[in-house]
Amino acid sequence: MSDDQDIRGERLQIMLTPDELSALDDFRFKERMPSRAAAVRELLKRGLAAIGFGSAVGGTKSSDYGVLASKGDGAT
To answer: Hey, how many other C-beta atoms are within 10 angstroms of the C-beta on 28?
Structure first.
């Protein structure tokens, strides 16, 4: 595992229904995941891959994904 994957700089809090939590736990135990957080990360990764989103390219910033062009980038 790379150093980038070991660093978790953002916390994401979500609320789940009892049925969603049960489904998450079923997935976690079936796949032998060490934690609910690991199961959520794996499901997120699989879901994004299923619809064609891969991992972000290293060195990119959130501003690289903006809708509007920033000043000085040559866009008109």
So the answer is: 19
Question: Could you tell me the pTM of the whole model?
Answer: 0.62
36 touches 22 (CB < 8 A): no
Token representation of residue 36 = 């609910």
Q: 33, 24 in Cβ contact below 8 A?
A: no
- The answer to whether residue 23 sits within a structural domain is yes
Is 26 or 53 the better-scoring residue by pLDDT?
26
68 belongs to a structural domain:
no
Residue 41 lies in a domain: yes
The torsion angles phi and psi of 6, rounded to 5 degrees, stand at -80, -20
pLDDT digits (tens, 9 = 90+) for 28-46: 999 999 999 999 999 999 9
